[in-house]
Specification:
The protein has 261 residues and is of the alpha/beta class. It is 46% helix and 14% strand. Strand 4, helix 4 and strand 5 form a beta-alpha-beta unit.
């Protein structure tokens, strides 16, 4: 294996890659020789990200897609297959949260998170797996969440959708192991992604913001992580370094999941 180009010749679809973790994965995969397709709901951010990726991988393409809408998800997958002639590696990166307890859940909110966080990944798998089966090769990586394993108050639906993602990946790993297709999850902890940085900025400067930042820092033994930390884990699972790894959930959380609070 060429450790400088661990994904050379591979075609990758990252479902959301316009910013944060998805963008970091796209850039790193491109550096390692992959042809990269990325989705994103925000057109200006997506176009800007694709410009950066194309500096490394001129063949990179971006697709405006709202993963909460079934027809857009499936249509984007069909277009990606047409443009790239097949996809070898699928990375499901999307994740949205609407904080509430069980008795506060609206059916609209439930459907939005189910469609976005869980069903969109299933739809992408349905579209892309037939080609993987034909080639007897494929890698599927779900960017899940620490909330799928242990959570905090107010994350009833989010934790449920991410937990479903983990469980389905284990089942899929069994279904496709004999066909040379591996399926794994990554569970990030506190990552200073664009979304978390935006959340920090919502607090007024001063004591309130400092208290929130200190809360983030206290959640794990190590400092909060970076999007690049998740990208590095994804590269391991996408490459032949993990050729004997499937059905696993990798905690990339700075030790949060081993800390007794």
């Amino acid at each position: 294996m060429n450790y400088e180009k661990m994904l050379e010749g591979k075609r990758v679809f990252i479902t959301t890659g316009s910013q944060g973790i998805g963008k970091s994965i796209a850039l790193l995969f491109a550096e390692h020789g992959a042809a990269v397709a990325v989705g994103g709901r925000n057109r200006p951010k997506l176009l800007k990200a694709v410009e950066e990726i194309r500096e490394i991988c001129p063949a990179a393409k971006g697709y405006v897609c709202d993963l909460s809408r079934a027809e857009q998800t499936e249509g984007t997958c069909r277009q990606v297959l047409k443009d790239f002639g097949g996809i070898d590696i699928l990375v499901n990166t999307v994740g949205v949260n609407r904080r509430c307890a069980a008795h506060e859940v609206s059916m609209e909110c439930l459907e939005e998170l189910l469609e976005t966080n869980y069903k969109s990944g299933v739809r992408c798998m349905r579209q892309l797996l037939p080609g993987m089966l034909e080639r007897h090769y494929g890698v599927i990586i779900n960017i899940s969440s620490i909330h799928s394993v242990m959570t905090m108050p107010g994350n009833f639906i989010y934790a449920g959708t991410k937990g479903a993602m983990n469980a389905s990946a284990r089942a899929a790993a069994l279904d496709y192991a004999e066909s040379g297709i591996r399926v794994n999850n990554i569970c990030p902890g506190v990552i200073l992604s664009d979304a978390v940085t935006d959340e920090i900025r919502q607090y007024p400067e001063g004591e309130e913001r400092d208290a929130f930042v200190n809360l983030l820092r206290s959640m794990q033994p190590m400092e909060p992580g970076r999007s690049e930390d998740i990208a590095n884990a994804a590269l391991y699972l996408a490459s032949d370094m993990s050729a004997y790894v499937t059905g696993q959930t990798l905690m990339v959380d700075g030790g949060a999941s081993i800390k007794a609070h």
